[in-house]
Amino acid sequence: MSEVWKQAFARVPELLAAHVQISVSALALAMLICLPLAIWAARSPRIATLALTVASLIQTIPGLALLALFYPLLLGISAIIGGGISAFGFLPALLALTLYALLPILRNAVTGLSGVDPAAKEAADGLGMTSSQKLYFVEAPLAAPTIMAGIRTAAVWTIGAATLSTTVGQPSLGDLIFAGLQTQNWTLVLTGCLFSAALAISVDLLLGLIERGIRERRRILVGSGMAVIAGGLLAATLPLLIARDNIVVIGAKGFSEQFILARLIGSRLEDAGYSVRYRDGLGSAVVYQALSAGDVDVYVEYSGTIWTNQMQRTDAPPKSEMLDSIAQWTSDSHGVEMLGALGFENTYAFAVRPEDAREKSLKTLDDLARVSSDFNFGTDVEFLERPEWRMVQAAYPIRFKDARSFNPTFMYPALASGEVDVISAFSSDGRITANDFVVLADEKGAVPSYEAILLLAPERADDDRFVAAINPLVGAIAVENMREANYMVDREDDKKTPEQAAGWLNEKLRE
Amino acid sequence: MPVSGPSLHLQNVSRHFGPVRAVDAVSLDIAAGSLVALVGLSGSGKSTLLKMINRLIEPDSGTILIDGEPVESDDPHILRRRIGYVFQNIGLFSHMTIGRNIAIGLELAGVKDGRANRVTDLLDLVELPRDMAARMPDQLSGGQRQRVGVARALATRPGLMLMDEPFGALDPVTRDKLTDQYKALHEKLGLTTIIVTHDMAEALYLADRILVMQDGQIRADATPGELLSGNVGAEAEALVAIPRAQAAHLIALSKST
What we know:
The complex is a heterodimer. Chain A is an alpha/beta fold. Chain A folds into 3 domains: 3-241, MetI-like fold; 247-341 and 454-489, Periplasmic binding protein-like II (D-Maltodextrin-Binding Protein, domain 2); 348-439, Osmoprotection protein (prox), domain 2 (D-Maltodextrin-Binding Protein, domain 2, 3-Layer(aba) Sandwich). Chain A has 22 helices and 10 strands. Chain A has helices at 3-10, 12-43, 45-60, 63-80, 90-114, 118-126, 131-161, 174-183, 186-215, 219-241, 256-271, 284-293, 303-310, 319-334, 354-359, 365-371, 387-395, 408-416, 430-434, 464-470, 479-490, 498-507; strands at residues 247-253, 275-282, 298-302, 337-345, 348-352, 376-380, 402-406, 422-426, 438-439, 451-456. In chain A, the strands form 3 sheets. In chain A, strands 7-6-8-5-9 form a 5-stranded mixed β-sheet. Chain A has a 3-stranded antiparallel β-sheet with strand order 3-10-4, with helices on both faces. In chain A, strands 1-2 form a two-stranded parallel sheet. Chain A is elongated and about 90 Å long. The mean pLDDT of chain A is 88. In chain B, the strands form 2 sheets. A 6-stranded mixed β-sheet of chain B has the order 6-7-8-3-9-10, sandwiched between helices. In chain B, strands 2-1-4-5 form a 4-stranded antiparallel β-sheet, covered by helices on one side. Chain B is α/β, with parallel strands linked by helices. Chain B has one domain: Rossmann fold (3-Layer(aba) Sandwich), CATH 3.40.50. Chain A binds chain B through residues 117-130, 133, 137-138, 141-142, 217, and chain B through 54, 56, 76-81, 85, 87, 89-95, 104-105, 107-108, 149, 152-153.
């Protein structure tokens, strides 16, 4: 097996176990909510209408949006009750997936229970059964196959949707898919998809077996289905029982540079004797919050992001002044320690094709403004909504003909192929030099500085061994080397994994 | 004939469904051991009256006494365990074997010993083969299923049987046979039975007392003999006229051949 597959498969057991844990927890919680509710609903048409309407409404919210909504919601609740609730990882994923699983379970349970032959219910009453005896002896067993079918649907949905929980910091097989998408590592994507599909199919088959067993009253089918599921659950929860001390969680946002730097930090911490877990693909807002709550121990941030998103500043002071203010602010407001800047910048950079730069003599953003009405603009999905874009527009009279958003992966090819004429590239991206794209100078300093900085969780600030392991990274990464490392992961041919690129980068550290 | 069944006393019993007076101030005494047929057209209130006795429907007003004791003196489910109930749609539990269906009343009562023997006795009683205990309800014919329904109702040895058009959905031959056999059972066990039917011929054959209901009231209360001799009211006469005409037609047919 090739190195790429080995790398991908190495992460599967841990992620599969986490995937099973979150899916099963959500499913169990949904059943706990739905089954009593369905019993109530089957006896009261008003409750049935209400419950099914609410569940259907929830279902119309896209899974990713539902996950995203729980993050601010939990933060708000945590603030109201004075902290203690983690808006990161397991809890938001659990709640969102549970809500998502409600509808199929509820709908089938209500259908099953209210569809029980009225004659059987009349006979049960006539024989002198109490309400609960009627449920136990008659309604539940007769509705069981339908209820089971609903649980089965919910299980498949939940296992599929659980891949999205990566975005709120809950490990799942989605980690492989998201990381693979960002780095164009299709082996990773395929591995993530294959294993989550295989998990969904196996669970579907097993629950189908149990459903058939109930329908045909064959206990052996029910029993063996349950036994296999119990075995799988046990295997998935065993890692939880093994005590794991001193585990370091390294956060990373969803692009190659972040994956590489996380691996670089991770390998150094492993050498220092720590066990390391990675949480990849986190949103900017999520990861900072997770760090201040201690759910993530360390990650690489960019000064401009803290400046504009967290501190809500709109000015752009000189680099060193800005870094000092940030260090002061993170420490004062969240106890987060800024260990230092890594030595390179990854800012928004407007890039054009070399021939355009030559023919139209484009060097600065002022030059771009001159031709902007003939230019199509390509950006990542969030740039047009970001404060930096408003800052640029305030400083330069840029009015593009048209603007289109791309996944970063496809933005560079779009510029190269002429689909767009200028892109909001990332200055440390290796694909800029690889394509000979020309970066236009921001002479008015409209875009704030985006120095890569190392942020530490409050409780790691005093961990000397920890700090000693990663402190050599401060000021040690040159932008050329970062671009080269990024390009190793991003390019089509001779693709490297983030681990390999991190290893290369480690060799190139500035003294 | 040993009588174990109770007597019934109904006083001013009424039940409305919205503006409809389903049962309108009915007062009635039923002697222990009698087999009473409640006859009437659809919507006459006969099923409602029957179901108020085992409280599947609660009356708006009035009192019902079984052996002098008000039906509401216990919880409804306790009351119903002492009363056999058989109805047209039978309501066998499709996920249970015939044996468990028959013994379910014993299971509810917490009887653990001798359930299998009791099932065998009951299968004998309703003239079904003993090995049927292991079968599932969907493997039985309609007539067999209703025999099981009767056996299930008798399992806890109730004295009172309430039957709501029990044989209405069966073919005439099966219905006739079951009617016959039930009459024998009723006498053998000394039951008090109230049977609701819209079939006057069945009532005339089966019952020793016939109550004709219309618009929630009892319009005629007579023995089969009295009904056939007439003078018990227009409602009763209209119902009796049908089997009488059929009988006359049959006699005429047989004479002409």
